[in-house]
Specification:
Length: 251
Protein backbone atom coordinates (compact mmCIF):
# COMPACT_ATOMS: atom_id res chain seq x y z
CA UNK A 1 0.00 0.00 0.00
CA UNK A 2 2.82 2.39 0.91
CA UNK A 3 4.66 1.61 -2.32
CA UNK A 4 1.53 2.30 -4.38
CA UNK A 5 1.05 5.57 -2.51
CA UNK A 6 4.63 6.64 -3.26
CA UNK A 7 4.19 5.72 -6.93
CA UNK A 8 1.05 7.85 -7.09
CA UNK A 9 2.81 10.85 -5.56
CA UNK A 10 5.71 10.49 -8.01
CA UNK A 11 3.22 10.23 -10.87
CA UNK A 12 1.41 13.36 -9.68
CA UNK A 13 4.70 15.28 -9.42
CA UNK A 14 5.71 14.14 -12.91
CA UNK A 15 2.29 15.11 -14.22
CA UNK A 16 2.52 18.53 -12.58
CA UNK A 17 5.95 19.04 -14.08
CA UNK A 18 4.37 19.02 -17.53
CA UNK A 19 2.30 22.14 -16.88
CA UNK A 20 4.73 24.91 -17.87
CA UNK A 21 7.90 22.93 -18.58
CA UNK A 22 7.93 23.51 -22.35
CA UNK A 23 7.49 27.28 -22.17
CA UNK A 24 10.06 27.55 -19.38
CA UNK A 25 12.46 25.42 -21.43
CA UNK A 26 12.35 27.87 -24.32
CA UNK A 27 12.73 30.86 -22.02
CA UNK A 28 15.86 29.56 -20.30
CA UNK A 29 17.33 28.73 -23.71
CA UNK A 30 16.84 32.25 -25.05
CA UNK A 31 20.50 33.29 -24.50
CA UNK A 32 21.48 30.70 -27.10
CA UNK A 33 18.43 30.94 -29.36
CA UNK A 34 18.84 34.68 -29.95
CA UNK A 35 22.11 34.06 -31.78
CA UNK A 36 20.14 32.20 -34.46
CA UNK A 37 16.98 34.33 -34.55
CA UNK A 38 16.80 37.37 -36.86
CA UNK A 39 14.85 39.11 -34.10
CA UNK A 40 17.79 38.96 -31.71
CA UNK A 41 16.76 39.72 -28.15
CA UNK A 42 13.40 40.95 -29.44
CA UNK A 43 12.58 37.25 -29.70
CA UNK A 44 11.48 37.36 -26.05
CA UNK A 45 8.84 39.96 -26.92
CA UNK A 46 7.44 37.81 -29.71
CA UNK A 47 7.31 34.83 -27.36
CA UNK A 48 5.33 36.79 -24.77
CA UNK A 49 2.83 37.85 -27.44
CA UNK A 50 2.43 34.25 -28.57
CA UNK A 51 1.77 33.09 -25.00
CA UNK A 52 -0.90 35.77 -24.63
CA UNK A 53 -2.50 34.65 -27.87
CA UNK A 54 -2.54 31.05 -26.64
CA UNK A 55 -4.45 32.22 -23.55
CA UNK A 56 -7.57 32.13 -25.73
CA UNK A 57 -7.60 28.34 -25.46
CA UNK A 58 -8.34 28.21 -21.71
CA UNK A 59 -11.26 30.54 -22.41
CA UNK A 60 -12.51 28.27 -25.18
CA UNK A 61 -12.16 25.23 -22.94
CA UNK A 62 -14.00 26.99 -20.12
CA UNK A 63 -16.90 27.81 -22.42
CA UNK A 64 -17.05 24.24 -23.71
CA UNK A 65 -16.87 22.85 -20.19
CA UNK A 66 -19.75 25.02 -19.03
CA UNK A 67 -21.88 24.08 -22.04
CA UNK A 68 -21.13 20.35 -21.89
CA UNK A 69 -20.92 19.93 -18.12
CA UNK A 70 -24.15 17.94 -18.05
CA UNK A 71 -23.12 15.57 -20.84
CA UNK A 72 -22.11 12.16 -19.54
CA UNK A 73 -19.50 11.55 -22.26
CA UNK A 74 -17.85 14.91 -21.56
CA UNK A 75 -17.74 14.21 -17.83
CA UNK A 76 -16.22 10.76 -18.34
CA UNK A 77 -13.73 11.42 -21.10
CA UNK A 78 -12.80 15.10 -21.41
CA UNK A 79 -9.77 14.85 -19.09
CA UNK A 80 -8.78 11.37 -20.23
CA UNK A 81 -8.62 12.52 -23.86
CA UNK A 82 -7.63 16.19 -23.71
CA UNK A 83 -4.79 15.92 -21.18
CA UNK A 84 -2.76 13.37 -23.21
CA UNK A 85 -3.32 15.52 -26.30
CA UNK A 86 -2.03 18.59 -24.47
CA UNK A 87 1.05 16.75 -23.18
CA UNK A 88 1.69 15.42 -26.68
CA UNK A 89 1.53 18.99 -28.01
CA UNK A 90 4.16 20.04 -25.47
CA UNK A 91 6.57 17.34 -26.54
CA UNK A 92 5.86 17.70 -30.25
CA UNK A 93 6.25 21.47 -30.10
CA UNK A 94 9.62 21.16 -28.40
CA UNK A 95 10.83 18.64 -30.98
CA UNK A 96 9.64 20.94 -33.75
CA UNK A 97 11.40 23.91 -32.14
CA UNK A 98 14.58 21.86 -31.88
CA UNK A 99 14.77 21.50 -35.65
CA UNK A 100 13.44 24.86 -36.84
CA UNK A 101 14.91 27.45 -34.45
CA UNK A 102 17.88 28.02 -36.77
CA UNK A 103 15.79 28.14 -39.95
CA UNK A 104 14.19 31.57 -40.32
CA UNK A 105 11.73 32.23 -43.11
CA UNK A 106 11.26 35.17 -45.43
CA UNK A 107 7.82 36.60 -46.23
CA UNK A 108 7.54 39.87 -48.18
CA UNK A 109 11.26 40.47 -47.72
CA UNK A 110 10.77 40.21 -43.96
CA UNK A 111 13.01 37.66 -42.28
CA UNK A 112 11.65 36.16 -39.08
CA UNK A 113 11.68 32.89 -37.14
CA UNK A 114 8.22 31.98 -38.41
CA UNK A 115 8.55 28.25 -37.84
CA UNK A 116 9.86 28.81 -34.34
CA UNK A 117 6.82 31.00 -33.66
CA UNK A 118 4.54 28.19 -34.84
CA UNK A 119 6.37 25.70 -32.64
CA UNK A 120 6.15 28.00 -29.66
CA UNK A 121 2.44 28.55 -30.24
CA UNK A 122 1.94 24.78 -30.17
CA UNK A 123 3.94 24.67 -26.94
CA UNK A 124 1.95 27.51 -25.37
CA UNK A 125 -1.46 25.91 -25.86
CA UNK A 126 -1.04 23.10 -23.28
CA UNK A 127 0.81 25.36 -20.85
CA UNK A 128 -1.88 28.01 -20.74
CA UNK A 129 -4.66 25.42 -20.72
CA UNK A 130 -3.09 23.36 -17.93
CA UNK A 131 -4.44 25.67 -15.23
CA UNK A 132 -8.04 24.91 -16.17
CA UNK A 133 -7.51 21.32 -17.30
CA UNK A 134 -4.84 19.66 -15.16
CA UNK A 135 -5.73 21.09 -11.76
CA UNK A 136 -9.42 20.09 -11.85
CA UNK A 137 -8.36 16.56 -12.69
CA UNK A 138 -6.11 16.38 -9.62
CA UNK A 139 -8.85 17.70 -7.36
CA UNK A 140 -11.20 15.00 -8.65
CA UNK A 141 -8.98 12.16 -7.44
CA UNK A 142 -10.16 10.17 -4.42
CA UNK A 143 -9.03 12.92 -2.05
CA UNK A 144 -7.11 16.19 -2.06
CA UNK A 145 -3.86 14.82 -0.65
CA UNK A 146 -2.25 14.95 -4.10
CA UNK A 147 -2.80 18.68 -4.62
CA UNK A 148 0.34 19.66 -2.71
CA UNK A 149 2.37 17.13 -4.67
CA UNK A 150 0.96 18.55 -7.90
CA UNK A 151 2.16 22.03 -6.95
CA UNK A 152 5.58 20.60 -6.18
CA UNK A 153 5.57 19.15 -9.68
CA UNK A 154 4.64 22.55 -11.07
CA UNK A 155 7.72 23.91 -9.33
CA UNK A 156 9.80 21.29 -11.09
CA UNK A 157 8.48 22.61 -14.41
CA UNK A 158 10.71 25.64 -13.83
CA UNK A 159 13.46 23.99 -11.81
CA UNK A 160 14.30 21.20 -14.24
CA UNK A 161 14.81 23.36 -17.37
CA UNK A 162 16.77 25.90 -15.34
CA UNK A 163 19.04 23.26 -13.84
CA UNK A 164 19.66 21.61 -17.20
CA UNK A 165 20.40 24.96 -18.85
CA UNK A 166 22.94 25.78 -16.14
CA UNK A 167 24.62 22.43 -16.71
CA UNK A 168 24.49 23.12 -20.43
CA UNK A 169 26.09 26.52 -19.98
CA UNK A 170 23.33 28.50 -21.68
CA UNK A 171 24.51 31.62 -19.85
CA UNK A 172 28.04 31.32 -21.25
CA UNK A 173 29.59 34.32 -22.98
CA UNK A 174 30.03 33.30 -26.63
CA UNK A 175 31.24 36.74 -27.76
CA UNK A 176 28.56 36.97 -30.42
CA UNK A 177 29.16 33.54 -31.95
CA UNK A 178 26.31 31.08 -32.42
CA UNK A 179 26.21 27.89 -30.37
CA UNK A 180 26.61 24.63 -32.25
CA UNK A 181 23.20 22.91 -32.46
CA UNK A 182 24.64 19.53 -31.41
CA UNK A 183 28.21 19.78 -30.19
CA UNK A 184 29.98 21.71 -27.42
CA UNK A 185 30.83 25.30 -28.28
CA UNK A 186 33.89 27.25 -27.24
CA UNK A 187 32.95 29.43 -24.33
CA UNK A 188 31.46 26.78 -22.08
CA UNK A 189 28.34 25.41 -23.81
CA UNK A 190 28.37 21.63 -23.29
CA UNK A 191 25.64 20.86 -25.82
CA UNK A 192 23.58 22.84 -28.27
CA UNK A 193 19.98 24.07 -28.16
CA UNK A 194 18.83 21.16 -30.30
CA UNK A 195 19.87 18.56 -27.76
CA UNK A 196 18.45 20.67 -24.94
CA UNK A 197 15.02 20.98 -26.55
CA UNK A 198 14.89 17.28 -27.43
CA UNK A 199 15.82 16.45 -23.84
CA UNK A 200 12.99 18.65 -22.59
CA UNK A 201 10.61 16.87 -24.97
CA UNK A 202 11.71 13.56 -23.46
CA UNK A 203 10.96 14.92 -19.98
CA UNK A 204 7.48 15.87 -21.22
CA UNK A 205 7.02 12.17 -21.97
CA UNK A 206 7.57 11.52 -18.26
CA UNK A 207 4.60 13.79 -17.54
CA UNK A 208 2.49 11.78 -19.96
CA UNK A 209 3.57 8.54 -18.29
CA UNK A 210 2.71 10.05 -14.91
CA UNK A 211 -0.78 10.90 -16.13
CA UNK A 212 -1.30 7.39 -17.50
CA UNK A 213 -0.33 5.97 -14.09
CA UNK A 214 -2.82 8.31 -12.41
CA UNK A 215 -5.53 7.38 -14.87
CA UNK A 216 -4.96 3.69 -14.18
CA UNK A 217 -4.97 4.34 -10.44
CA UNK A 218 -8.22 6.29 -10.66
CA UNK A 219 -9.87 3.54 -12.68
CA UNK A 220 -8.80 0.98 -10.09
CA UNK A 221 -10.20 3.11 -7.27
CA UNK A 222 -13.44 3.63 -9.19
CA UNK A 223 -13.67 -0.10 -9.78
CA UNK A 224 -13.14 -0.80 -6.08
CA UNK A 225 -15.79 1.75 -5.15
CA UNK A 226 -18.19 0.18 -7.63
CA UNK A 227 -17.52 -3.28 -6.22
CA UNK A 228 -18.11 -2.01 -2.70
CA UNK A 229 -21.34 -0.38 -3.78
CA UNK A 230 -22.52 -3.60 -5.43
CA UNK A 231 -21.62 -5.64 -2.35
CA UNK A 232 -23.34 -3.14 -0.09
CA UNK A 233 -26.43 -3.17 -2.28
CA UNK A 234 -26.45 -6.97 -2.32
CA UNK A 235 -26.01 -7.08 1.44
CA UNK A 236 -28.88 -4.64 1.94
CA UNK A 237 -31.08 -6.69 -0.37
CA UNK A 238 -30.30 -9.91 1.50
CA UNK A 239 -31.01 -8.26 4.84
CA UNK A 240 -34.29 -6.92 3.50
CA UNK A 241 -35.33 -10.37 2.27
CA UNK A 242 -34.41 -11.94 5.60
CA UNK A 243 -36.43 -9.34 7.49
CA UNK A 244 -39.44 -9.99 5.28
CA UNK A 245 -39.14 -13.73 5.88
CA UNK A 246 -38.90 -13.21 9.64
CA UNK A 247 -41.92 -10.94 9.61
CA UNK A 248 -43.94 -13.48 7.65
CA UNK A 249 -42.90 -16.29 10.00
CA UNK A 250 -43.87 -14.15 12.94
CA UNK A 251 -47.27 -13.52 11.42
Amino acid sequence: MLVKECICHIAVAAFGMGTWLSVNAVYVELPLLVSFAPEGYDLATYIVLIVQLACLFPLIYGILDSKLASKELWILYNHAILIPIMLFFSGAGLVMAAFVYDRPGVINNSKHSYWLFVAFFIISIPCTTSDVLFMPYITKLENTKYVATFFIGMGFSALVPSAVSLIQGANANLNGTAANPWKPTEGGVLFGPRIFLILMAAICCLSLIGFIVLLKHRNEVSGDDLSKAILQSSSNSICSVELNVIEKDGV
